[in-house]
Specification:
seven-stranded mixed beta sheet; globular; 6 helices; two-stranded antiparallel sheet; alpha/beta; binds S-adenosyl-L-homocysteine
Length: about 210
């Protein structure tokens, strides 16, 4: 991280004080420079624990929420992970250090392309960012060991549940976009699905179909 030691300590302290305690997640978040994913006038706020605007009217999530979601996903080094909602690519870059392979999709071509370029500039080679409607999952690469959704749906989308391996975990915000949403952890078992409610969150909505740009 291209940060002075004091800001780096503060960044990690904020994460810990908001419940991010998993050592592997904290290590990954220390190694991935959030500043590389935020452009323009907000760049110098990259190390504050707040969501920030990115192009196409979207947002890069708050670091502590990224940490809590990553922690809840319980990724292991052999996992193939799908992220729905690539946005800036920040979350996918963190997953790249914890998983074997990461596919991340965004309905905005412009965001998908720029996130892929950022991966390349950082030398991250196990992430593929694609422009695609993630509400349908990514059937070509399914099944997935883990699925992370970073935009809010009213209910867990059926195609995503279907593309989750038995024993797999999906973490996603659910609820209407203009209300407080709940972050939930879905575990797919042999004969059914188990839901655990984690906390209240606020995400941009999961929208079906491709975006304009
Ligand atoms: N994870 C991102 C932040 C995501 S913001 C980061 O680390 O920066 C949510 C993203 O979900 C937006 O970029 C939005 O375009 C995308 N999105 C919304 N609906 C989608 C859909 N159906 N398929 C794919 N992406 C979607």
């Amino acid at each position: 991280m291209s940060l002075d030691p004091e800001r780096r300590m503060q960044f990690l302290f904020q994460l810990r004080s908001r419940g991010v305690t998993d050592a592997r997640v904290l290590d990954a978040m220390e190694r991935i420079d959030r500043g590389a994913f935020v452009r323009g006038i907000f760049a110098d706020r990259a190390y504050e624990d707040m969501p920030l605007p990115i192009p196409c009217g979207q947002t890069i999530s708050q670091p502590s929420v990224v940490g809590l979601m990553t922690q809840a996903l319980d990724v292991s080094p052999r996992d193939k992970v799908l992220e729905v909602g690539a946005g800036s690519g920040y979350q996918a870059a963190i997953l790249s250090l914890l998983a074997r392979r990461v596919y991340s999709v965004d309905r905005h071509r412009r965001l998908a392309q720029s996130a892929q370029e950022t991966m390349e500039s950082l030398g991250i080679s196990n992430v593929t960012v694609l422009a695609s409607d993630g509400s349908r999952g990514l059937p070509d690469q399914a099944p997935f060991d883990r699925i992370l959704v970073t935009a809010a749906a009213e209910d867990p989308p059926g195609p995503l549940l279907a593309q989750l391996r038995i024993g797999g975990i999906m973490v996603l915000p659910v609820g209407q976009s203009d209300h407080v949403q709940r972050l939930i952890k879905v575990t797919r078992g042999e004969d059914g699905v188990d839901y655990e409610e984690l906390r209240a969150v606020r995400f941009v909505p999961l929208i079906e179909g491709m975006g304009q740009e």
